[in-house]
Amino acid sequence: MKTVKTNIQSILEQMTLDEKISQLLQLAAPFFNGSKESGQITGPMAEMGISDEDVRNSGSVLGAAGAKEVIHIQEAHLKENRLGIPLLFMADIIHGYKTIFPVPLAIGCSWNPELAQKSAEIAAKEAAVSGIHVTFAPMVDLVRDPRWGRVMESTGEDPFLNSVFARAFVRGFQGDDLTGDKEKVAACVKHFAAYGAAEGGRDYNTVDMSERQLREYYLPAYKAALDEGCQMVMTAFNILDGIPSTGNKKLMRDLLREEWGFDGVLISDWGAVKELIPHGTAANKAEAALKAITAGVDIEMMTSCYVHHLKELVEKGNLNTALIDEAVLRILRLKETLGLFDNPYRGANVKREKEVIRCESHLELSRELAVKSCVLLKNEGVLPLKPDQKIALIGPFAQSGDLLGAWSWLGSKEDTVQLYDGLKERAPHSHISVSQGCDIETGTEEQRNAAFKAAGEVDIIVLALGESSNMSGEASCRSDIRLPQVQLDLIAKLKELNKPMVTVLFNGRPLDLHGVADETDAVLEAWYPGSEGGRAVADLLYGEAVPTGRLSMSFPYSAGQIPVYYNQFNTGRPKDAPDAQEYYVSRYLDIPNEPLFPFGFGLSYTSFSYSDAKLSAAHMTLETPFKVSVCVTNTGEIPGEEIVQLYVRDITGEVVRPLKELKAFQHVFLQAGETKEVTFTLTEEQLRYHHADLAYKSDAGSFAVYVGPNSRDAVEMIFNLEK
Ligand code: BGC
């Protein structure tokens, strides 16, 4: 450890101020290829005013992938960089490298951190062999607004569940020996902080909330990632309490670095340093640079405020070089941790790449996770399908490879298993006709008539509907979160046939499912299921696999209800209180308060009942372990897995507490007719919250605890916390 320190310290001492400043610059891959191939400054480089020297001295590359390309860039760089400081290669490996897994929101619905971890291990393995050192993941922004396109990148609306997944992803990416294990990559948790709370669900928009709310709901998942050893943090685009995160000293320096003790690399989001100018907190690039470095941002991604202005700030006496040294040292330390000074090519290996990427076991896991991520929202006895049924598969996703979702830039739609192919493979002798019915947002009379005719000839209609993958993701927000009208019209037309209809949905956000859930007999939410999507969905539709997914984000009744989330407060005039007035209560005149499908909800092909819920004592004390147990019975005819969920409510707190808060969950597998007792241990620590003065502690007094299959249908028991 001592030698490591001495080494990077001595490198730092040999660096000129210009070299140090360039080390803080992150450029996209084309800058490197461009400079080498053309020998002159063109395109983006010229626009940014980046010189060849800046490129030569820069510290990291964004978005290069493939062992050959990475080795080529690194080799050329090492020849030209005076001190031979290797480049760090970073990229967005969000839900897979080339083996694409379901989108993170779908993974959230698996409630399965073990599989999530495995998916990150595989993503790391494929990325590492392709030369990548750092992934810009996990994204752990808590989300409550499905209009925001980036909800597909998050695991959902709950701080506890998000924290569980944050840890799992970091463990998967980094493993426990980042230096020695060349199949791992460093993780970068993002977007710090509270990017998911953009007003109106519009990307990059204002975020404003109390510090208590921030700490209670939004911060825990970032903290969990860091507790797991996450090496890097990325700033968010949004403001927080009036100051853009990227220049927010209170957030970065005081909270992240001082209070939480994070000493890893902090990177700006793409262009976010320069965006301090349009935000209106910096007059020019020099001021933006000063604010960002003062706030603790080490690497500036894709703008040139640092390279163009830090030196002049130092020369004018406005900036202490200690801040620059500290940032450079952190970057060098990460390079050291990744072993780049010993082997700058790390895991990059052209030969191994061919063996590892999209190998059978990786695709198998992708399929398994996709099966676990789909959520059965409705089933009026029509699923699973039977092999002797004649089926008409209809819709824009019937034969589409657009099943990967946003942030799968290395995934290939051509290699993705389409739904029709998956169904044919699963039921080769069944009659399955296929027609498109319409495109995603438009359609012709001809398409619709052809589908109508095909549907007339079968026993059951399977609709494959949804949003194209560019309708969610970054900068892809929607105000109307229903399916495009043409798809709703298709359902309405087919409904005339009065045949059983199953809808399979491929989309990146909770949708308003009016016109779908009320019009068809079964709804399977498949999200973007990834490389093996068609096979995974076919496994579920034919009952080869039994659905286990549970929503990790509420499906609103309609967009007018947003934000709607399960851990809301009671208000002073709750609608359903026994003494509630008829009119002056907290409600809408035209829609219910409740979401269409609540957090934690999901059906199976079997059914479960809960009985004998009990507490080990009426009082929880600090000394004795407190147990909550319930018996779960599989009341159906086939084996199945239930996810038993435990929620609590602090009935009277110093500040208002949510009606329910998820505290634990357990997967339980039951044969038909089998009963198992499921026991949870609940501790005083799990009852703590941030008080008005931000102190994190519990209150003595009454609590409700709930156990059940989702956040709505759970058995309530009351206990007392004694202190
Ligand atoms: C996104 C980040 C991403 C970065 C680099 C930004 O636009 O907000 O999530 O990691 O680009 O690609």
UniProtKB/TrEMBL annotation:
Signal peptide annotation: none
Xref: Gene3D superfamilies: Glycoside hydrolase family 3 C-terminal domain, Glycoside hydrolase, family 3, N-terminal domain, Immunoglobulins
Database matches in PROSITE patterns: GLYCOSYL_HYDROL_F3
Protein name, per record: beta-glucosidase
EC number annotated for this UniProt entry: 3.2.1.21
Keyword Signal set for record: yes
Family the entry assigns: Belongs to the glycosyl hydrolase 3 family.
Source species of the chain: Heyndrickxia acidicola
SUPFAM superfamilies (alphabetical): (Trans)glycosidases (SSF51445), Beta-D-glucan exohydrolase, C-terminal domain (SSF52279)
UniProt entry tagged with the keyword Transcription: no
GO molecular function terms listed in the Swiss-Prot or TrEMBL record: hydrolase activity
Chain ranges of the Fibronectin type III-like domain: 642-711
EC class (word): hydrolase
